[in-house]
């Protein structure tokens, strides 16, 4: 494949997971003090009733980080 030619998007789940890897690593590295303080506080005050909120927040964070990474790469801001 010549350089500059776009690759096809992955269609199999293994290919998709392979492309999510860098975004997941960056997301795991960007845990701030807000998460370290707010998550246990929510768990202590509300128990499992807001567990869905924490899980949804983690999923949204992953998607945002992946998209920001794509934007930076596409604009040559790496």
From TrEMBL:
Query: Transmembrane ranges?
Result: 20-38, 50-73
Q: Which UniProt keywords apply?
A: Membrane, Transmembrane, Transmembrane helix
Keyword Transmembrane helix belongs to the record: yes
**NCBIfam families, from UniProt?**
Nramp_1
This protein is called what? Manganese transporter
Q: What is the lineage of its organism?
A: unclassified sequences, metagenomes, ecological metagenomes
């Amino acid at each position: 494949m010549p350089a500059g030619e776009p690759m096809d998007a992955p269609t199999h789940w293994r290919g998709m997971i392979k492309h999510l890897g860098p975004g997941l690593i960056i997301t795991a590295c960007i845990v701030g003090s807000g998460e370290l303080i707010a998550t246990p506080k929510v768990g202590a005050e509300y128990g499992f009733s807001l567990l869905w909120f924490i899980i949804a927040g983690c999923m949204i964070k992953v998607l945002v980080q992946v998209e920001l990474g794509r934007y930076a790469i596409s604009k040559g801001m790496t």
